[in-house]
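Re: that chain you flagged

S.,

Sorry for the slow reply, it's been a week of failed gels. I finally had a moment to sit down with the sequence you sent. For the record, here it is as I used it:
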Amino acid sequence: MSDLSAFAITRKWPARDPQRLQLYSLTTPNGVKIPIMLEEIGLPYEAHRVNFETNDQQSAEFLSLNPNNKIPAVIDPDGPGGKPLPLFESGAILIYLAEKTGQLLSQDPAERYRTIQWLMFQIGGIGPMFGQLGFFHKFAGKDYEDKRPRDRYVAECRRLLGVLDGQLRDRDWIMGAQYSIADIATFPWVRNLIGFYEAGELVEFERFASVKRVLENFLARPAVIRGLEIPKAP
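Prediction finished late last night. Pasting the structure tokens below so you have them in one place:
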């Protein structure tokens, strides 16, 4: 029987079933990666909503799990050696869950590292650059008279989409025939760029036919459809 009472975060978000993985997240591009992964691999979990409107991510309880005050974060009650494992950073969590379950990350060492390189491409490029474009196009940055910052990120986002489009040409998924954690990390951000950020026309998204095709296939997956809505609003 797992006891998660040592984790301060459980005082704010009590675990209904401490035997299940505890997920702390919100439906942002980074936040949905882990529920999508969990839905894909079928690992039982509980989702707890970290509400940005009430600054839950700045609470002492959340900071006790992730001092970087970012979502998502998890506690796996059945971590290595059977001990609870707290973990933050979406890329690290994706790799951990893939290795724990033997799913969505190749066991072949060379293919494994090629997959991780595309995961890092999202973490180091697509996520930060798409996010900056969102700021300068939709949020406070749109009021700046000087459009050079926005245009810098437009150009970089187009470049990154071009790289991704080239990789996807004649491939079903980023790694080829096999769907992987690289896809789970990447396509929520592409969806957000043309959806919530409303930047599809700005980055000329229609030019990237392979990205568009694979995004549509990604969004049609049942686990993705479910995961995009988790954690649900109260």
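What I noticed first: The longest strand covers residues 21-25.

Talk soon,
D.
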